[in-house]
């Protein structure tokens, strides 16, 4: 079965403001105030919790892996409780995904967000039932760009890797697709914008209204 696998953060939904808020809650708890900007640091937000904590500690001129490891569970707890304060699906995403499902495509999620948080967010956004598989960070023991999570997402959705592709927004997604031997479409409405073209994906997606055309182009 033809299958489309989606990244979540920065691809289906703009989660940056809630992610940044969770990191800033850690720094406030340490007495430093808000160190990260939901606008200027959105790029880092999509690299994950540890990347945000690392950036904040760098701005303080101290802190290391031990401090990041200590604060990471605090970040996850705060984020889990405030997961959809600012987060919204990108324009047209739900409608485009629903159209693919109605057309007979298998659909899944492959994200480096912890699986329980990804499930919770998609349920809050009202689109969890659209996806036949949910593979998060460490669900299969490794994370993207290792191809195993992608393969698990395709198979979990009932699809075939050879007739699939990945929709993402970062170099990690590009590398994952390459490792799995499948095409990749990168969105240009994330924080990296048109700069993702330099990663040479098989397709660029400027709006979810174009997803059906991109899908036909890549896997028929």
Automatic annotation (TrEMBL):
Protein name per its UniProtKB record: phosphoglycolate phosphatase
Pathway, per record: Organic acid metabolism; glycolate biosynthesis; glycolate from 2-phosphoglycolate: step 1/1
Protein family membership: Belongs to the HAD-like hydrolase superfamily. CbbY/CbbZ/Gph/YieH family.
KW Hydrolase (keyword) present: yes
GO cellular component, as recorded: cytosol
Single GO term (MF): phosphoglycolate phosphatase activity
Keywords, alphabetical: Hydrolase
TM helices/strands, residue ranges: none
InterPro entries: HAD-like_hydrolase_sf (IPR050155), HAD-like_sf (IPR036412), HAD-SF_hydro_IA (IPR006439), HAD_2 (IPR041492), HAD_sf (IPR023214), PGP-like_dom2 (IPR023198)
Keyword Hydrolase annotated: yes
GO BP annotations, alphabetical order: DNA repair
Organism whose genome encodes this protein: Celeribacter indicus
The protein's enzyme class: hydrolase
Enzyme Commission number(s) from the entry: 3.1.3.18
Catalytic activity: 2-phosphoglycolate + H2O = glycolate + phosphate
């Amino acid at each position: 079965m033809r299958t489309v696998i989606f990244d979540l953060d920065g691809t289906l939904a703009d989660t940056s403001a809630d992610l940044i808020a969770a990191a800033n809650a850690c720094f406030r708890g340490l007495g430093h105030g808000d160190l990260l900007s939901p606008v200027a640091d959105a790029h880092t937000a999509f690299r994950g919790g540890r990347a945000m904590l690392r950036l904040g500690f760098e701005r303080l001129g101290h802190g290391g892996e031990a401090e990041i490891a200590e604060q990471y569970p605090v970040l996850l707890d705060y984020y889990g409780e405030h997961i959809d304060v600012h987060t919204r699906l990108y324009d047209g995403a739900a409608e485009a995904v629903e159209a693919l499902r109605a057309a007979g495509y298998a659909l899944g999620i492959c994200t480096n967000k912890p699986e329980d948080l990804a499930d919770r967010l998609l349920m809050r956004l009202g689109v969890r039932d659209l996806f036949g598989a949910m593979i998060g960070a460490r669900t299969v023991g490794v994370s993207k760009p290792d191809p195993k999570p992608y393969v698990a997402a395709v198979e979990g959705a009932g699809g075939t890797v050879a007739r699939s592709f990945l929709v993402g927004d970062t170099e990690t997604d590009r590398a994952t697709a390459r490792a799995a031997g499948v095409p990749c479409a990168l969105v240009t409405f994330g924080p990296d914008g048109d700069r993702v073209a330099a990663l040479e994906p098989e397709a660029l997606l400027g709006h979810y209204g174009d997803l059906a055309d991109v899908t036909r182009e890549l896997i028929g």
